[in-house]
Amino acid sequence: MTATVSDGRSETYQVFTLRAVADKDSIQPDILVNLTPQTPILPGQLATSTIRAQSYAAIASVTVQARGAGIGASDWQTVELDNAGRLRLTPAYPGLVELQVTATDIDGFSHTTTERLRVKDPADTSAPLLQWTGALQGLQAGSTPLRISYSTAISARLQDTQLMGYRLEIAPSVVGQSVQSLVWQSLGENDYAAQAIDAQTALATLDPHTLNNGVYQLRLTAWDLAGRSTTQMVSLLIDSSEKTQRVTTTDSLFSVGNHTLALTREMMPGSTQQDAGNWRLPLLDSQLTHDQALKDATGATAPWRQGTNVWLQLPTLANNDQAAVNLSFSLGLEPLGNNLYRPVFSQSQGWQLSVGDLNAQSVQLTLQGGRLYNAATGLAWVPSGFVATDKVGNRYQLSAQGKLSQVVFNDNTQWLVSDSGVTLVGDATQQARVQLIRDDKGRIERIVGMDSQGQLQSIVYRYDAQGQLVTARSLVGDSVNQRYGYQTDGSLLTAQTAGYLGAAVNWGDTTQNTWQGTLTATPTYLTFGVRESELASTRKAPGSTGSVIVAVHSTGNASVGVDG
């Protein structure tokens, strides 16, 4: 801006800049706290902290306060900086030292940040000790899975001199996958301030009604101030007759050959490693698990035993009311004479399960000490694949890990199924396939195929920074137009919304942002969209931040709130 002053004969002017911001947080000073060393130190060791601050206006003051067990002070103590903006601190005791830095500029904007200096106990030389208690007492890695049929309290004894925290997680025990590749879901966690602890601790309550039946790995990890960690794992067998209904939705009914494919998604709260972020496609993964060990005591392949239990979920291909059917099978043996047997599974809800491939001959087994061995090779017997047959004779080819690879219908129509889509065998045209196009993180970003009405359908999927699905939208018409918001625990804000008000950029057209209805005591949810381009337009310089202001005005006796 330019200000000009004139006395009628001469004039002078001054150019100055005004900066208008929507939120004071966007103009607060930036603070850098650089600790040296950044690793834990010993009592009596010197630690140096270099502190820098900058803002749109000049910095007026920088103040530093400290407290914590390391300096024997529970209240904030002011600490002086030298002329170079450095802080020198020599803790006398083990524990944490909190440093609180506040920077204020000449316009009055301020910002406070906190850093922690870790001082380790020289007498503490071991990682945290963990021991399961309560219902899991005595269990160890490799123990027979504990059957969980009702809500069960999970507890453990935690012992450490300077405990910093623990985390409890659970994951389906997928055949053939390493521990690192399992899809872990958090059950509970807690942070400690370098606390000395030796007590039984309630970790979480495990509700089997929220999990599919099968074998799971339960993992408890604890870490201390020095950075050492300890992990304990046990196997659990989830087996309950009643299940909490998960949120499911069918995006479209596709036609592949003369059969219908219901593209159904199932929400998986707490997990963002599914095919659609936090939503899974039952079509692609049966979540097959069993209660057999993979290795014996020597590290060799462990043979299966008679009575092995197998759990899996298979998609209801043409049914958009149910994503998948939960099945459980038990392995039996059909005697063939001379200590030869044929593996036979029990039925489940009218479904049958057999071992091998669609066209393979049945394998013959021998039984020794309750363990099964291949009669032809003498090697430990482990199924190389499975074939599931539904009530009407449709057959599903599954790998040993439970991945669906082929479907053969009772009229001999065949589908090939993979992570890239579904294809009709014997037909290479576009109308004979449903394509699953993925992004660089392996998530589905687009699905293309012919719907049941003979129209080409293209559905796009978008995800937020946490990897959660936020949009599923059809590029052809409005047959699919789903937008999602989530609570902090990963659950949906609401499964049903009364109306979608469109994108804010289109609100100049009054028909785009209108909803009519009757408000009741039950909350009415209305959603709208803010495009990425609108958010990006608020950032005026590379690396800067911006914000979009949304104002909500109500009249009458109405209460307005925002979730998310």
Summarize the topology.
Blueprint: E1 2-6, E2 11-15, E3 30-36, E4 47-54, E5 59-68, E6 73-79, E7 86-89, E8 95-105, E9 110-119, E10 129-134, E11 146-148, E12 152-172, E13 185-206, E14 214-224, E15 229-238, E16 248-256, E17 259-267, E18 279-280, E19 289-290, E20 309-315, E21 324-337, E22 340-345, E23 352-355, E24 365-368, E25 371-374, E26 385-389, E27 395-399, E28 404-408, E29 414-418, E30 421-424, E31 433-438, E32 444-450, E33 456-463, E34 469-474, E35 481-483, E36 499-503, E37 526-529, H1 532-536
Q: Uncertain runs with pLDDT below 50, 5 residues or more? A: none
Mean pLDDT: 87
Strand content: over 45%
Distance between the termini: 39 Å
In terms of quaternary structure, the protein is single chain
> Main β-sheet, in a few words?
11 strands, antiparallel
Percent of residues in helices comes to under 10%
Radius of gyration computed on alpha carbons: 31 Å
Question: What does this molecule look like?
Answer:
With 564 residues, the protein is mainly beta. The chain is built from one helix and 37 strands. It has an eleven-stranded antiparallel beta sheet, with no helix packed on it. Strands 10, 11, 12, 13, 14 and 15 form a six-stranded mixed beta sheet that branches. Strands 6-5-8-9 form a four-stranded antiparallel beta sheet, with no helix packed on it. The relative contact order is 0.08.
